[in-house]
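Troubleshooting: if your tokenizer reports a length mismatch, compare your output against this known-good record of 450 residues.
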Amino acid sequence: MSELENKNSTTEPEGVRVGFLWMAPGISRGNLYAFFYTAFSTIGLLTFISVATTLVLNTHLKIPTDQQGTISGQLVFWTEITQILLFGVVGVMADRMGRNRLLAIGMVVMGLAYLFYPFADSITELTFYRVLYALGLGTATGMLATITTDYPRDCSRGKLVAVGGIFNGLGVILVIAGLGALPIILVNAGYDEITASYYTHFLAFGLCLIGALGAWFGLKGGVPIRRGEHLPLRELATSGLREAKNPRIALAYAAAFVARGDLVILGTFSILWGATAAIDQGIEPSEAVAKGRLIFVIASSAAMVWIPIMASFMDRCNRVTTMLICMLLGSAGYMCVWFVNDPLDLASAWPFFAMLGIGQISTFLGAQTLIGQEAPRTHRGAVVGVFNTSGAIGILVSSLLGGYLFDKVAPAAPFILIGVMNLMVALLAVYVRIKYPGPIVERAGATKAS
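Known-good structure output:
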């Protein structure tokens, strides 16, 4: 085996075992439980932006439905520009200071964006608050991805990513189903549409603060390397790009380009599709959002059911092979949405939305597990920072094209775009699997070439 393939395949010392999960040395049970809550709250609350945007565009700003796809795409554009500029800096900071503190700060900033969001008087002001949201989002999710890589031993990497994905999914479902339903509940209780929107955003702010406290006090402080192992700052800043010489890390970066954007595209355009279809039928905005979120809930619920199936083999076979399978599932899941004629006719459309959720979570799990295996310990934050930056660029490209396609071609068109992108990465995975297969986890603490 080459030096490249041996780099991350050394035997690991013992760590704490929690059920079927082996933790890296120094990670306590309390840290793991805090990670589960952080995975639940961070990913769940970041998806509220799709509900928040739909509420503000319809209830506060009264934007015509035939313009909302383009505006939503533009808002995502500024979100991703901000994250592209931020992820590299956050990745380097992650290798110099505590992950827990950065994640907590990110949650507070994201909460402040939700607090201000319904007070926007124009698209320009809304864009400013969206940039504030992006600052918090990039910091919090960048640290969550790094922690997901830090905490497990390699023999449990796929399982921890899968369990974390379950908590991600629970958070998404509860936020979309709970906060997404709150406006119509408040309207039915006698509040007007605007007041109901305000209260919903205030609650989102409070939940972000609770998530920040959990991260600050529950996650492991510091960084997972000794002081003498720190790389010079200049070398650290460029290490993420240099690691692309590893074909499997390059593949992970390419997968992130697609996979890290899947959830955002799914959340943005599925809810928007259902909501605009309902509004076009004369339904009030708060009720339309409630109908639109059902698409997302179906997709997320299917993803939750699928995660344990993925976890059953992710740590048993070559991770490039796993990546190939995941990207093919993602391609099939997104492309099948083309067969949906009426998104509100869930009796006939739910199998396609379920497959959409399965495809989305598969690409996320495959990409996260591969980068977790390959990222070197001494500059893991920097590598994950480039991984996240690649994802942000992917979201930028797909959201701009997706917003245009949503308005000008068909609401299903953004999903077809993502499906094609997944297929392209799958073809790249075939090449890497043949030429540079890398290690496969054999048992706790041992790997072999395949």
